[in-house]
Amino acid sequence: MMQSVLRGVPFAAAVLLLGATPLRAEAIKVTIDNFTFAPAELTVKVGDTVTWTNHDDIPHTVVSAGKFRSKALDSDDSFSFTFTASGDYKYFCSLHPHMTGVVKVE
């Protein structure tokens, strides 16, 4: 009887540990307004999703060469990207290249 109880202990401990530390990805927002990305620099974790929303009255894009590219975002349009690998992701607006930002993924 004692042996069968002890066999279940590692499984129960694993369930408790996994339940106690939920792994949650975060949703982070970047605002496009007045020809700027705000915040222009942010740090996120692998698995987090960043959503850019255009609040300007003209279109903008969000482009990270070779990584992601939005369509032209009209007013109040959004673009989301989930970061699956660590690194620095520099991005810009292809319609207004002076608009830049960076997402640092840890």
Fold and architecture overview:
The chain has 106 residues and is an alpha/beta fold. Helices cover 18% and strands 39% of the residues. It contains 1 helix and 9 strands; from the N terminus they run αβββββββββ. The protein has one helix spanning 2-20, and strands at 27-33, 36-38, 41-44, 49-54, 63-64, 68-69, 78-82, 87-92, 100-105. The strands form 3 sheets. The chain has a 4-stranded mixed beta sheet, with no helix packed on it. β8 and β9 form a beta hairpin. The longest helix is centred in the N-terminal third of the chain and has 19 residues, at 2-20. The radius of gyration is 21 Å and the shape is globular. It starts with a helix and ends with a strand. 17% of the residues are buried. Mean pLDDT is 86; it is low at 11-22.
List the helices and strands and how they pair.
Layout (H helix, E strand, L loop, with lengths): L1 H19 L6 E7 L2 E3 L2 E4 L4 E6 L8 E2 L3 E2 L8 E5 L4 E6 L7 E6 L1
Parallel strand pairs: 1-4, 3-9
Antiparallel strand pairs: 1-2, 4-7, 5-6, 8-9
Provide a short characterization of the protein structure.
The protein has 106 residues and is an alpha/beta fold. 18% of the residues lie in helices and 39% in strands.
- Rg for CA atoms: 21 Å
List the total number of helices.
1
| Largest beta sheet: strand ordering | 2-1-4-7
Shape: globular
In which range does the helix fraction lie? 10-25%
In whole angstroms, how far apart are the ends? 47 Å
How large is the share of residues in beta strands? 35-45%
In the predicted model, the low-confidence regions spanning at least 5 consecutive residues are 11-22
- Alpha-beta classification: alpha/beta
Number of strands: 9
Element-level helix/strand string? HEEEEEEEEE
Biggest beta sheet attributes: 4 strands, mixed
Average pLDDT rating: 86
Oligomer: single chain
